[in-house]
Design brief:
Elements lengths: L1 H9 L2 H5 L4 H16 L10 H5 L2 H7 L4 H38 L5 H17 L3 H7 L8 H22 L3 H11 L4 H18 L1 H7 L5 H14 L11 H8 L31 H5 L4 H15 L10 H13 L3 H18 L7 H10 L6 H15 L4 H11 L5 H17 L6 H14 L5 H18 L1 H8 L4 H13 L48 H4 L34 H13 L7 H6 L27 H107 L2 H4 L3 H8 L10 H17 L9 H9 L11
């Protein structure tokens, strides 16, 4: 017996792995695990036989002896742990399904635990989707303990890696069937899996499962959900691609990490096709009961977590009209509930309907019934979550000036809720609009309106700080300041200053892009059974540096050029299924060349290099038990990777759309500012035109006055010329008389002057002319200009006044 055992140890490892004696196989499995642990690189020769023949590990994990099977599954775990992603992708398509079918149904607890560890290692080395896709068909097996074990394995995968890494959509679709299983253990594992998913997804999961579950099951789940609601889910393991990012120092604040959106994990429902065909006709009925029934049916249709983006403008217009103009408050309440469901289901896609529904909702806030007010407030809150603060601010500020106190109060409370939930601090002009409107409301006659305005100002102070609010509240009295500060101390806001977007790096190739690491993760300790000791310091130096000789080129078959977004087989990272299958096919087509072990080691590629330079033994890829060949499996893997690339591209496009939406909002704000400036310029232009017209009128009046003055001056000039002519004629007449006639006295003088027409004696001109006559008379009588004229003037004054000297009547 001892000689036989010595003969077993002398056999090559490949022969002992398939030996008919289970003890020999078990010892070979243990020896292979030790070789994997002692390997210096993922390209070590000990991995090559298993990478070249994936069916070898399929036989190991399905060993007929339970003891040897457990040892073989432990060797599989070591192979994955030390072989890396290259080893994982080489055998995953062949090994995962039989591993689950045999290992998860085992009665040995150690075998089942090692099977779960191996499945977790398959996920860690690459991605989770292929493993989950292979496990889901096992849920339809006839053996109850296998179904329960598979559900348990899925729960462990979700618990370890979280919903960020594991796509829960396929798992959710399989849950209703598990809840209807006849075995209680299967139903219990289904409930545990559902609770684990609820920790990551929240209430949307309940809304998705509620129609397919019995009331008793739903009630039991509600109790378990309530117990697990306070737990903050955190992954316990990370992918190999995430590990480098998780170990790297992260300078970004923890608050900047994007939270998972549960609705992204739920399929969208097309409610446009489910709207009742006679909905619009029934909404036009004169009976309120018909209108309410139509809205009740619509409420059931739109009560889904996620709604597909389709044209719902007609439905939204009908809801807005019902909210604004319907006289029945029950109809208004149901219409508001439908609007809320649409806004929550469409999310950002509902933004184009906001102008249609916002004004009717604000106008209807005049209703004093509490149930109606609550429905309208909930609809307004849901609508605000789909758009930006600047898009609703104009309408909200306008309705704070409404004549109805109830509308002003509810609108201001809506503004308070907006300030609490907005995530980016508004701009300065928006803050000024809010502050100005609320300061005016502080002097309102209604006390609830004043209290709402004080709460809005207190929330605004919490958002921007006391220093920035000092100019706003400085002019208020102490009572109002005290109210604002009370709300300031209790207010809670989420807004943070808007930061300039960082420049986006150029996208990496599909094969080189790692999956994003989950936030707040630290590199976990390896699980028991898969502990890998730290590599020695000299291990990198031991890696072979020689590059392999290039294989002879072969003519590739003509294929259509790959899409820009879909990676070709050549773009897959080293060690992927596509590359390994291509090399395996090449090895099958070409004759194998015998090489020495030393030459094969020198020709081995460096660590983490892939299989492009390896010479693999010729072995045909075995058929998978699922009916797919290895080539089909490889094509399936390629399609899965293409789907991942599509998802990443979709995320990038979504980010671009968000940037465009922000730019659109900024441009809209700029258009509003330009409109205001234009209105101001038009007003200034109007005032300037009116001022010019007034000045033109004054100038015309001044021109008229100037013409009148010129006419008067011309008339006076003509009078002056006539007077000068009379004086010149008189002087000529006097000068032409002989001297004898000049001494005759006054009679001759008066007779000579008689033909001259007289003017009225009154006025300045008459007195001067009379004085001139007296001077002439004195000259005629022989007086000198310098002689005294007192006697002559006295004599002339003593003579009686002639009739023709009298003043005219």
């Amino acid at each position: 017996m001892a000689d036989q055992e010595e003969d077993y140890s002398a056999l090559p490892l490949s022969d002992r792995l398939t030996h008919k004696v289970w003890k020999v196989r078990s010892g070979a499995y243990d020896e292979a695990a030790k070789q994997f642990a002692a390997s210096g690189a993922e390209t070590d020769p000990c991995f090559r036989p298993f990478v070249a023949d994936p069916g070898l590990f399929k036989k190991i994990v399905t060993d007929s002896n339970v003891v040897a099977q457990e040892a073989g599954i432990a060797a599989l775990g070591a192979f994955l742990q030390y072989g890396g992603g290259r080893a994982c992708t080489a055998i995953r398509a062949t090994v995962v399904t039989p591993l689950a079918e045999k290992g998860l149904a085992s009665a040995r607890a150690g075998t089942k635990a090692k099977t779960v560890d191996a499945l977790l290692a398959f996920v860690e080395m690459d991605v989770a989707d292929p493993v989950v896709d292979d496990l889901l068909p096992v849920l339809g097996a006839k053996l109850p303990k296998l179904v329960a074990g598979t559900a348990m394995a899925l729960r462990e995968i979700v618990h370890a890696y979280g919903a960020r890494t594991v796509n829960p959509k396929p798992v959710i679709k399989a849950l209703p069937k598990l809840f209807t299983h006849s075995d209680k253990n299967v139903r219990a594992e289904a409930a545990a899996l559902t609770v684990e998913l609820y920790r990551w997804m929240g209430d949307p999961l309940r809304d998705v499962l509620a129609p397919d579950l019995k009331p008793v099951q739903l009630k039991e789940l509600e109790e378990q959900f309530a117990a697990a609601k306070g737990d903050a889910p955190q992954p316990t393991r990370v992918l190999q691609s995430q590990r480098a990012a998780a170990d790297a120092p992260d300078d970004a604040p923890a608050d900047d990490v994007d939270e998972i959106d549960p609705l992204d994990l739920v399929d969208a429902v097309d409610v446009a096709a489910a709207v009742p065909p006679d909905f619009h006709e029934r909404m036009g009925s004169a009976k309120w009961k018909d209108r309410k029934d139509a809205l009740d049916e619509l409420a059931k249709v739109v009560a889904v977590p996620k709604i597909a983006d389709s044209d719902l403008s007609d439905v939204v217009r009908v809801l807005a009209k019902a909210v604004q103009k319907d006289a029945n408050v029950m109809v208004v309440t149901v219409a508001a509930n439908c609007t809320e469901s649409l806004a929550k289901g469409l999310r950002a896609a509902f933004a184009r309907y906001v102008p249609t529904v916002l004004t009717p909702l604000l106008e209807r806030l005049k209703e004093k019934k509490q149930s109606v007010s609550d429905a309208l407030a909930a609809a307004l809150d849901a609508v605000f979550q789909t758009t930006a603060f600047a898009d609703v601010l104009g309408d909200v500020v306008e309705f704070t000036k409404h004549k109805t106190p109830q509308v002003k109060q509810e609108t201001t409370m809506f503004l308070v809720r907006c300030l609490r939930t907005v995530k980016v601090i508004p701009k300065k002009d928006e803050i000024k609009q809010v502050a100005d409107a609320c300061v005016v409301l502080l002097a309102d006659t209604a006390k609830p309106v004043r209290a709402a305005a004080a709460e809005a100002l207190g929330t605004l102070m919490k958002m921007i700080g006391e220093r920035a609010m000092n100019p706003v509240i400085d002019g208020l009295d102490d009572i109002r300041k005290g109210m604002i500060r009370e709300y300031y101390e209790t207010a809670e806001v989420k807004a943070k200053p808007e930061r300039a977007p960082a420049p986006r790096p150029a996208p990496a190739p599909a094969a080189a892009r790692p999956r994003p690491a989950a936030p707040g993760l630290k590199r976990p300790a390896p699980r028991s059974g898969l502990v890998r000791p730290a590599a020695p310091a000299a291990a990198p130096a031991a890696a072979p540096a020689a590059a392999p000789a290039p294989a002879p080129a072969r003519a590739a078959p003509a294929r259509s050029p790959p899409s820009k977004l879909r990676p070709s087989l050549s773009a897959l990272r080293p060690g992927s299924v596509g590359s390994s299958l291509g090399l395996r096919k090449k090895a099958d087509d070409e004759p194998a060349k015998p090489t020495s072990p030393r030459a094969s080691m020198m020709a081995a590629p460096p660590r983490r290099g892939g299989l492009t330079g390896m010479s693999l033994p010729t072995a045909a890829a075995p058929k998978a038990e699922s009916g797919l060949s290895s080539a089909e499996r490889a094509e399936l893997q390629e399609l899965r990777k293409a789907r991942l690339d599509w998802a990443k591209t979709e995320d990038e496009l979504r980010a671009q759309l968000e940037d465009l939406a922000a730019e659109k909002a900024a441009l809209s704000q700029e258009v509003v500012e330009l409109g205001r400036n234009n209105a101001q310029l038009i007003g200034d232009h109007t005032r300037d035109v009116l001022s010019l017209k007034a000045k033109d009128t004054q100038l015309a009046r001044v021109h008229g006055d100037a013409e009148t003055a010129r006419a008067q001056v011309a008339a006076l000039q003509r009078e002056l010329d006539a007077a000068r002519a009379d004086a010149a004629r008189l002087q000529t007449t006097l000068a032409s008389r002989p001297p004898s006639a000049r001494s005759d006295g006054r009679a001759d003088l008066d007779g000579e002057l008689s033909p001259v027409p007289r003017r009225p004696s009154s006025g300045y001109g008459s007195s001067r002319r009379r004085e001139s006559y007296a001077d002439l008379e004195e000259k005629e009588n022989g007086y000198r200009p310098g002689a005294s004229r007192s006697s002559s003037r006295d004599r002339y004054a003593a003579e009686p006044k002639r009739d023709d000297d009298a003043a005219p009547p």
